[in-house]
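About this split. The held-out portion is used to measure sequence recovery: a designer receives only the structure tokens and must propose an amino acid at every position. Recovery is the fraction of positions where the proposal matches the reference. Here is one held-out target exactly as it appears in the evaluation file.
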């Protein structure tokens, strides 16, 4: 099983709770890939995954997960960890 990075911050914004695992400044490029939609929706319907690619690397890592606001921050943190575990394992 992959090591899931620690949650850095949890912020509630417009319609999502933004669960950040890695600092966006660490990445050259950040995307919301279509392929991450299935594992994310399997865990929490309507969630989104943002991935980042570091300079000089071909690897994409989960930067953050956006969970629908109605689940609440504690549940969002738990669901986001589950999504990252599913993607990075």
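Reference sequence for scoring:
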């Amino acid at each position: 099983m992959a090591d899931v990075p620690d949650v850095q911050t949890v912020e509630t914004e417009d319609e999502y709770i933004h669960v950040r695992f890695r600092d966006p400044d660490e990445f050259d490029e950040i995307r919301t890939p279509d392929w991450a939609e299935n594992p994310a929706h399997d865990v929490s319907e309507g969630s989104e995954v943002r991935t980042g690619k570091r300079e000089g690397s071909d690897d994409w890592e989960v930067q953050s997960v956006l969970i629908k606001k109605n689940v609440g921050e504690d549940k969002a943190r738990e669901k986001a960890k589950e999504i990252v575990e599913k993607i990075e394992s």
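Annotator remark: The two ends are 6 Å apart (CA to CA).
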